[in-house]
Amino acid sequence: MKNNLEQIKKQALNDLNELMDKKSSINLEENLRALRIKYLGRKGELSQILRNLKDLSVEERKELGALANSIKKELELAFKEKEDEILGEKGGDYDISLPGKKIKTGHLHPLTLIQRDLEDIFKSLGFSILEGPELESDYYNFEALNIDKHHPARDMQDTFYVDWDKNKKEEKLVMRTHTSPVQVRAMQKHGAPLKVIVPGKVFRNEAIDASHEHTFYQLEGLMIGEDISITNMIALMKELLKGIFEKEVPVRIRPGFFPFVEPGIELDISCQLCGGKGCSVCKQSGWLELFPAGMVHPKVLEAGGIDSKKYSGFAFGLGLTRLVMMKYHINDIRLFNSGDLRFLEQF
Amino acid sequence: MFISLNLLEEFIPLRKKYKAHDLALDLTMHTVEVEGYQDLADKYKQVVIGEVLEVKKHPQADRLNIAQVDVGTEKLSIVCGANNLEAGQKVPVALVGATLPIGLTITEAEIRGEHSKGMICAEDELGLGDNHDGIIVLDKKAKTGQSLAKHLGLDDIIIEIDNKSLSNRPDLWGHYGVAREISAFSGIKLKEYEKVFKSKIDIKEDKENLNIKVEDNNLCPHYSAVKVKNIEVSESPLWLKNILLASGIKPINNVVDISNYVMIELGQPLHIFDASDISKILVRKAKQGEKIELLDKSEKNLSSNNLLITDGKNPLALAGIMGGLDSAVKDETKDIIIESANFEAVNIRKSSLELGLRTDASSRFEKSLDANLCAVALKRALDLMIQIIPGIEIDSQISSAGEIKEEDKLIDLNLQWLYKRIGKEVGKDEVVKILTSLGFEIEDDTDDNLQVKVPSYRATKDVSIAEDLLEEVSRMIGYDNLEPASPSSKLEVPIISHDHKIIEKIKDILAKDINLTEVHNYSFVGTKQLNKLGISYDNHLTLANPLTEYHTLLRQNLVVNILENVKTNQARFKNIEIFELGEVYLNVSGDLQQSHLKQSYLPHQEKKLAICLASDEDQIQRIKDILQTFVNKLLNVDKEISYQAFEFVPAWASKQKSALVKYDSKDIAYIYTLNKKIAKDLGIKKQVVVSELNFNVLKDLLKKEDDKKYIKLAKFPALERDLAFLVDKKVPYKDLKDDMVSFHQWIENVELFDVYQGENIDDTSKSLAFHVKYRLQERTLEAKEVDEVQTELIKYLQEKYKAQIRDSK
Question: Going along B387-523, which residue ranges are E strands?
């Protein structure tokens, strides 16, 4: 009887495998069911043997009963496996080409995105992130930056002035025209050495059109230490560009004038649109002005309470709005403050 | 500013060494930004001078002639309609292939059966004037075959320099200064200025000095002038006109043109008066209310800030800005006075801004010019007059008032310091070479210490400290020629401002967890907008110089502008869910100082966060869901925030559906439902809910919740019972809930899962359904004992709130 049981098991597994090998069989499911009944059904071969157990001695019953049960379990497992296999292949009438539905997602403003990209780069270079007021005093926005009342440099930036405390005949305040005022505030608060960036909103009294805005975003950078040099500044600029563009971009550095730095420089990058060949965006020059920088003027260091004999440093200003426009080829600057979801939901 | 290469060539022989492109590049890399350059000859490519050999009538057309024209390389047959065409003339001929300034391209043609190769041009066709009466007839001496551009002196290249990059360089406001820079970076030798003079300036000894008096030597440090007689006012020669035109200055007459020519050469503005009736010159401040009629025929009302040139009584000119009409040089003028003066920069700048007059002269004076230019400019003007206007006589000595201070500006330059700041051991020889090429003189040279004398034309403002010399040396080396060097700095974890971290967290939760879209709006609002919302704007900070009526005030909340965003999007989006995080500006003192030098403070500025939902359905529940999720996520808690009515609901919001939002006992936000009438006035068609959150309170809460510790997982299971009942609809949820939670210590939590009002319930009632969760930390509660407490709870609610139980299980 023991042999019988082993025989049934062997036979059953054989039949099962044979059946499964002939996958093309149309009645695979049905045949499988028939096979199951043949071996495992109530009147199946295994059941019959189990029924005959009662005629045996207690010892034999114990031994063979255990064996029969284990074979039964084994076969059931095998059948289950095959059934699952067949089931797994099923699902026949599902149209796999159906689309997925869009799950609603939120969107960060493109300026937030670029700001974060830059902050990540600067944090990795050990720069702190600070903030400063958008409504600023004439002192921090101009005077402390070596731009005195009648300095022609004030022509460079058309300023929004704000009336404040007229009774006290206080000086007009300004909507900051750049993030540079935070240079002096940061020096006064933290002293030297210093490695900071200041992202933020800035304002110019300029009529709005597709390429001019009175409200846009900048990122100011400042590094002060002992014996910080021009070549240090250039190294940082170049490293920064690698971070921004994630490749080597041809650059050129030329002199530029800003009262709060001496010397001042302008950094141009090879025009990303025409690859430096010259196009309308770069005014045929092949170069795009990316950001101004320079060695902090000793007067600015002194306004910040820093000994200009002992310390030197550099500062730079990145136009965030301009960078986003370049990155995504956005041709209308007004979109940033438009609140237009058709625009904002693209980011 | 426009720079003519032809004029530069007078001072420095460039053309052999430089192509325009390379010169523009070198200027940009070492000195000032070149915006572009233009070759004037490009306009007249393939237009040459031809000699008319023979003119015949066109056999088929009465009005046309056929001319045989020698253009040097060949003889052409050209059909021409002009009636002034004659044999022997020299004429401009556009060859086949030429494109004229008017856009016409010349091709070979057959005109009524006759072959024509080219075109003989009229003035308008070449863009040289408006005349179309006939062809241009050139001077008999014109060279056959030469390009027209060359003949007209138009073979010039114009370089345009960005004026902004010149604002600290008074010396570069004339060609000679630019030539000096080019000489410094290219090594090409610069001619001495006075060596280009062509005339001998003879002033007879018996000529007298002019009577010149300056009242305020601070405003006019130096004034010099000379009188010239027997002037013949006429048109300037072509070469002079061409140089002026190239520099963007309109030629007027020989006298005025000479003064402008000297200005573009040297950067020193001159002024020329008609000398009749002028016996003395008095430079004084204007009297308050004094008037002057200027050359541009405008009349200006002056103040005592303005400086005048007068004849002792009447104004002759507004000093350094513009001449007066009365004293202007006229066609019949015979005697003139040439003024070459130095005026104080700030005063000129102030006056020119105040009077709204920016001129070529004022934009130079306001850069602080070198007073030493006065004398040499005057000499140059005389030199040119002698060359151009025959028969003139210098009728006075060169006369002046005001001593030019001869003090040397010296700067100590330590070479080791210089190398450290550049980041490169440049070498003493190189430093000395660069500085001297720019006109600096080395007065003393001891080891590593140089004493450098600044030339007068750089000393007025531009160069005064060692850092300025650092710039001179490094820009002449060229920044691109410096090897970048990484700075060495201490290892330090950067400080990220607390505000900054929270901003990032807030934005992430709102955009990434709650799926709102971030907007940016202007910091400004307008009175119209505020009027519509019924917001008073008396107390707003105002822009002193607004651009438009929409942006005149500084915003005090974010609501006003975010409502506009709804309008922008309502036609295209069913649901609008947006937020803004930004600054507001209040008309009270804040805690930031205006300067560390004085005790005055900036207005209070703080960040706000606004969330705005708009849809066709009411969004009040949705905003609550959002706020709850937001606060839980931001503060990392699981705590219910609460809502209560408040007193001063703004006029634009619905009283019933606006609330003060509290977390613990802190006011964290308001929610407002936009009043339907106002919505209509604003043109908003959707139902709108706005919440404005207080950033600073959130920040403080976040600091507190930072100490959060984890809660141990409960060892024993909770038992939950549901309870639904009817109560008077005026009973606030909050009271019921608080009472239920505090009813028994086993009650761990009570959660509302349904609110119903309407059908099958009488008007005065609402149905509320709660999950009540019971738990003990020490053991498993038994169903029986929980049921007992639940029964007590029901009884309590029945007594206190007259609750009618609908269901309890």
Answer: 393-394, 399-401, 409-414, 441-446, 449-454, 517-518
Mutation site, B479, B574, B611, interface A, largest A CB count within 10 A: B479
Q: Which residues of A touch B551 (CB under 8 A)?
A: 214
pLDDT band of residue A162 (cuts 50, 70, 90) is: very high
Probe site for chain B from A164, A196, A249 (most B CB atoms < 10 A): A164
Cα separation, B648 vs B643, whole angstroms: 15
Average of per-residue pLDDT across B539-567: 94
How many A-B residue pairs are in contact by the CB < 8 A criterion?
255
pLDDT at A166: 62
Cβ distance A105 to B515 less than 8 Å, yes or no, reads yes
pLDDT in tens, A97-129: 888 988 889 999 999 999 999 999 999 999 999
pLDDT at B15 over 70: yes
Nearest-CA neighbor of A85 among A28, A10, A37? A28
What is the model's pLDDT at position A158?
A: 85
pLDDT value at residue A82 = 79
* Overall fold of domain A110-131+190-344: BirA Bifunctional Protein; domain 2 (3.30.930)
Looking at residue B226, its pLDDT comes to 96
Nearest CA in chain B to A226: B489
For chain A, the three-class secondary structure string (H helix, E strand, C coil) is CHHHHHHHHHHHHHHHHHHHHCCCCCCHHHHHHHHHHHHHCCCCHHHHHHHHHHHCCHHHHHHHHHHHHHHHHHHHHHHHHHHHHHHHHCCCCCCCCCCCCCCCCCECCHHHHHHHHHHHHHHHCCCEECCCCCEECHHHHCHHHCCCCCCHHHHCCCCCEECCCHHHCCCCEEECCCCCHHHHHHHHHHCCCEEEEEEEEEECCCCCECCECCEEEEEEEEEEEECCCHHHHHHHHHHHHHHHHCCCCCEEEEEECCCCEEEEEEEEEECCCCCCCCCCCCCCCCEEEEEEEEEECHHHHHHCCCCCCCEEEEEEEEEHHHHHHHHHCCCCHHHHHCCCHHHHCCC
Contact residues, B window 364-383, toward A, CB-based 8 Å cutoff? 366-367
Indicate the residue of A231, A284, A339 with minimum beta-carbon distance to B422. Answer: A231
| Domains within chain B, CATH numbers bracketed | 2-33+162-196 (no CATH), 42-151 (2.40.50.140), 211-401 (3.50.40.10), 410-481 (3.30.56.10), 498-705 (3.30.930.10), 719-808 (3.30.70.380)
The rounded percent of chain B whose pLDDT value lies above 70 is 99
Give the minimum alpha-carbon distance from A280 to chain B in angstroms, rounded to a whole number: 12
Per the structure block, which two tokens stand in for B244?
A: 């002026």
Contact list, B597 vs chain A (CB under 8 Å):
139
Q: B-chain residues within 8 Å CB-CB of A214?
A: 547, 551
Give the pTM: 0.83
What is the reported pLDDT for B709? 78
pLDDT tens-digit map of A169-220: 667 899 999 999 999 999 999 998 999 999 999 999 888 888 889 999 999 9
Q: Does B603 touch chain A (CB under 8 A)?
A: yes
pLDDT per position as a tens digit, B27-61: 999 999 999 898 888 878 889 999 999 999 888 88
Q: What is the pLDDT of residues B104-125, one digit of tens each?
A: 899 998 888 888 999 999 888 8
- Interface contact flag, A160 B596, Cβ < 8 Å: no
> Domain coordinates of chain A in residue numbers?
2-89, 110-131+190-344
* Alpha-carbon span A185 to A196, nearest angstrom: 12
For B522, the closest chain A residue by CA position comes to A337
Q: Quick one: pLDDT at residue A91?
A: 58
| Mean of per-residue pLDDT scores for chain B | 92
